[in-house]
Design goal:
Layout (H helix, E strand, L loop, with lengths): L22 E6 L5 E6 L3 E5 L5 H13 L3 E6 L3 H5 L16 E6 L3 E2 L15 E2 L3 H16 L5 E11 L4 H11 L4 E6 L4 E4 L4 E6 L2 E4 L2 E6 L4 H13 L1 H19 L8 E10 L3 E11 L6 H8 L7 E2 L1 H11 L10 E5 L5 E4 L4 E4 L4 E10 L5 H11 L1 H4 L2
Antiparallel strand pairs: 1-2, 1-9, 2-6, 3-5, 4-5, 4-17, 7-8, 8-16, 8-20, 9-10, 10-19, 11-12, 11-18, 12-15, 13-15, 14-15, 17-18, 19-20
């Protein structure tokens, strides 16, 4: 996000510890960082079924033309509703709406209240034991060796409870894992808390950028060990292969929307370091064709290939059959759309959902390829939950 969203100056800052629902908080922690609060929506746009998706996108486009800002989320299962090859089948039932966006006037800068919260220590129970994961993992490998797919991003939920203030939870978690691109969405009954390190896509005018993330290494305890693990990640053939598969997938997705010859890889295998892990990303850029709509963007790109596998459509079919529960907002996307056409969306990993009964779900996953090992992949999944458990 940039200042193009139209901040109204320091007098508009919100520094209160509590915020009246409905609202959306978005933070972009890259560069100098930016925290924006969208509150008092003029309209809430929701699609709970595939039949409601087209109208929801039309309402979003209309709100944008009226000069309003859009902020909210798209659940992973929206991808099944948008893909023509899935239309003959029922869209998997998501625990959250497929689309949920508020239409707002200009956002306000958000300043957290004085006195930072301590990070939460929330106990989580994985839906799958190590043995149950290994069983699904082997089925993924069978599909890979049968030639159905090259990679499957296999995920599972972890369950817990939280009966406190979601904003306090978010602020506390930020101490443990600074936000690359995340925030809080409290537009419906559920509350979504996202501390995502991954950008899905950003568009400014007709210029669009994507930055898939694939390849993970745990941080070392000592500086030399930590540097060695980061260096290993940059040279690890498996991680590079996983990353390159997703880069090719995103290039293909963007080519359906972009001017011929405009899709370019800006950088490959760049390692970013976070408090609990190192992760590998790559950058892709393109120039959109004239007349591409918001619905076109999501139909062409959603969900991000880094959370499905490759080829995307077949991977999504396998995911639907193998995973034990719909993903909901996890592996979907949180984002904002400014009335001038500037768009920013994340990939909703490191993301949890709190429901009205205080139940909490936090999903984790990893990419399975031909040379993956079940124990290592299961351990990688649990490492990714440490932003919430603190373990």
């Amino acid at each position: 996000m940039t200042n193009a969203v139209g901040l109204s100056g320091p007098s508009a800052q919100n520094t209160g510890a509590s915020i009246d629902r409905p609202f959306v908080l978005f933070e972009d922690g890259r560069d100098e960082g930016r925290s924006l609060l969208f509150d008092a929506p003029e309209e809430i746009i929701v699609a709970r079924s595939a039949a409601e998706v087209a109208e929801a996108f039309s309402r979003m486009e209309a709100a944008s033309r009226r000069g309003l800002h859009l902020a909210g989320y798209a659940s992973y299962e929206l991808g099944y509703a948008l893909e023509p090859r899935f239309r003959a089948q029922a869209t998997p039932a998501s625990p959250t709406p497929l689309l949920l966006f508020g239409a707002f006037k200009a956002p306000k800068p958000y300043v957290p209240p004085a006195g930072e919260e301590e990070p939460a220590q929330i106990a989580l129970q994985p839906a799958w034991s190590r043995e149950e994961y290994a069983e699904r993992f082997q089925k993924c490998r069978d599909y890979i060796f049968a030639g159905d797919v090259y990679q499957i991003n296999l995920t599972f939920p972890l369950y817990g409870r939280f009966d406190g203030d979601p904003m306090a939870l978010y602020r506390g978690l930020r101490k443990r894992q600074p936000v690359a691109y995340g925030g809080v969405v409290a537009l419906g009954e559920e509350t979504v808390v996202s501390l995502s390190p991954e950008v899905f896509f950003e568009a400014r005018g007709r210029d669009i950028r994507a930055r898939p993330m694939k390849g993970t290494a745990q941080r070392g305890f000592m500086p030399l060990e930590d540097m060695a693990r980061a260096k290993y990640l940059t040279e690890d053939e498996k991680s590079r292969a996983e990353n390159l598969m997703i880069v090719d997938l995103l290039r293909n997705d963007l080519s359906r929307l972009a001017e011929v010859g405009s899709v370019k890889v800006a950088d490959l295998f760049t390692v970013h370091t976070y408090p609990t892990l190192h992760q590998m990303t790559s950058g892709i850029e393109a120039r959109l064709r004239e007349g591409v709509t918001l619905k076109d963007l999501f139909t062409g790109l959603f969900p991000c290939g880094s959370v499905t596998g490759a080829p995307k459509i077949r991977a999504m079919e396998i995911i639907r059959d193998l995973e034990c529960a719909p993903r909901g907002v996890y592996c979907g996307s949180l984002g904002v759309i400014a009335p001038d056409g500037e768009i920013s969306f994340n990939v909703a990993i490191r993301t949890l959902t709190i429901f009205p009964d205080h139940s909490l779900v936090c999903n984790v996953g990893s990419a399975v390829v031909a040379d993956s090992r079940p124990r290592e992949e299961y351990d990688e999944c649990l490492i990714k939950a440490r932003f919430l458990t603190g373990a």
